[in-house]
Specification:
four-stranded parallel beta sheet, binds iron/sulfur cluster
Length: about 350
């Protein structure tokens, strides 16, 4: 089908068909520009000209990980020279720093320690809740939930309810990568399967624990795999309404096993980043916010992505060892710099909470 016909159809309010979305991901040149422009127009209709961010602080409690995914430069085996696991006191020190930055969200983003069980995760949550009683605690991937359930011989629901009681307010939709098991068997064979990921997310949403949706793209997957992934997210959102945003995570290749073993030579190009942003906006008609990763894209690409369907810059983070260890720049910016790049686009930057309530 003609690209212009597909785009007119979507602008008329019709749901983008998977086969047409695959075609959009293959566009180049002026056709690609038309895809970005259509996504930008849909973004404006849906959320206006506001660009949002959350004042948050990442805490990487451990880099020891049972999974050692091929696309990751952060995870370590226990006993490796630079492997670490924070003590309670070290977690408290991180939280004290976060408190001084007046964050509204703590983002727990760590390796999946092979010995951790539900009790360990509960203790971490209790420390966060005790030190920062009013912040949103945004933590744990479906893989961590599944691991806690396995280790403690409980169901996904039992784990989620216990975490919610201990202070968890929202969950990360990470560990999704690409929800196609043939791709997962290459890039993250030790992680939850696509079906397990979906079960944890649906259970969380059912217990009123919202989550982000994510995609980590640019390794071995095809355009069809990316759209299969988006179809799963769109279907879940139709049923639960529990996704707060779609987060786009381009593969950073330099220090990862997939790259050093010669399986993937480079990460995604700029046009792949922009097409992925635009097609996510057009395909996910039931998710209002499309978030880009400033550390992974850098400020200039972030500006371009904001013109191709994105409306959220994620957060202040203050640290992003996951991107840094993979070979990216540990590049977290203060709201003043976000304001600079957003104003340059004629848009308005606003601070939000985890759940996208605007903070005056
Ligand atoms: S991506 Fe996450 S689960 Fe995989 S190795 Fe890295 S830290 Fe571990």
């Amino acid at each position: 089908m003609q690209i212009s016909t597909i785009l007119t159809d979507v602008r008329d309010g019709n749901r983008l068909k998977p086969e047409d979305a695959v075609q959009l991901l293959h566009t180049r040149g002026r056709d690609a520009l038309a895809v970005y422009a259509a996504a930008d127009a849909v973004r404006e209709e849906k959320v206006g000209n506001t660009v949002t961010f959350v004042r948050n602080n990442n805490i990487h409690i451990t880099n020891i990980c049972k999974n050692l995914c091929g696309f990751c430069g952060f995870g370590r085996r226990a006993g490796e020279q630079d492997a670490y696991m924070f003590t309670s006191e070290q977690i408290r020190a991180q939280l004290t720093a976060a408190k001084s930055r007046q964050v509204t969200e703590i983002c727990l983003l760590s390796g999946v320690h092979p010995e951790s069980d539900l009790d360990d995760y509960i203790k971490q949550l209790q420390i966060c809740r005790e030190m920062l009683p009013n912040v949103n605690i945004h933590g744990f991937s479906p893989d961590e939930i599944n691991w806690a359930a396995t280790q403690s011989n409980l169901s996904h629901r039992d784990v989620l309810v216990a975490m919610q009681d201990a202070g968890l307010t929202s969950m990360q939709g990470t560990a999704a990568e690409i929800l196609v098991d043939s791709v997962r068997s290459v890039i993250c064979p030790a992680k939850v399967s696509s079906l397990q990921w979906e079960d944890v997310i649906r259970t969380a949403h059912g217990e009123s624990i919202p989550s982000s949706a994510t995609i980590m793209y640019g390794t071995v997957e095809t355009a069809q795999d990316r759209i299969t992934h988006l179809e799963i997210l769109r279907r879940i959102q139709d049923d639960t309404g529990g996704f707060t945003e779609m987060v786009l995570l381009p593969f950073i290749h330099q220090h990862t096993p997939l790259h050093t073993k010669g399986i993937v030579q480079f990460g995604p190009t700029a046009s792949e980043d922009l097409l992925m942003t635009a097609v996510s906006r057009l395909f996910l008609d039931n998710i209002d916010h499309i978030q880009i990763s400033l550390p992974k894209l850098g400020s200039k690409m972030a500006q371009a992505a904001l013109c191709a369907g994105a409306d959220d810059l994620s957060g202040t983070m203050y640290q992003d060892a996951v991107t840094e260890d993979a070979g990216g720049v540990a590049w977290c910016i203060e709201p003043e710099e976000m304001e600079y790049i957003v104003r340059d686009l004629g848009r308005t930057l606003k601070e939000r909470t985890t759940l996208y309530e605007i903070i005056a």
